Amino acid sequence: MASPSERLAALEQRIEDHESRCEERLAEIKASVASTLKAVEGLKSRAWGVAAALLAWALAQLWSANAVRLEQLEAARPAAIDVATTPARRG
């Protein structure tokens, strides 16, 4: 049977080994978390880019629709308006 001092030394060695393994695991976890955070930041910036592109596309659609409406209004002026404004231009 081992003496109490030998058992204490063995326990201290096991604790030191355990702590060193925990430190290694913690370093791996920190590296993994840093990598994940970097990937999330990249996805976030891409999402903002997609949102900006969609907003620009929607604004372009509104702009072109308004331009078409204005062209239609200008092309289809009623004859009564033309007649009413023609004498004013002459006089």
Short description:
The protein is an all-alpha fold. Helices cover 92% and strands 0% of the residues.
Q: Runs with pLDDT <50, length 5+?
A: none
**Structural class based on helices, strands and sheet pairing:** mainly alpha
- Tally of strands: 0
Overall domain count: 1
Biggest beta sheet attributes: none
Order of helices and strands: HH
Please, how many helices?
2
Task: Provide an overview of this structure.
With 91 residues, this protein is mainly α. The chain has one domain. Helices cover 92% and strands 0% of the residues. It has helices spanning 4-75, 79-90. The longest helix has 72 residues, at 4-75. The chain is rod-shaped and about 125 Å long. The model has no long low-confidence stretch (mean pLDDT 87).
Which terms would index this structure?
0% strand, 91 residues, rod-shaped, mainly alpha
Task: Describe how the helices and strands are arranged.
Blueprint: H1 4-75, H2 79-90
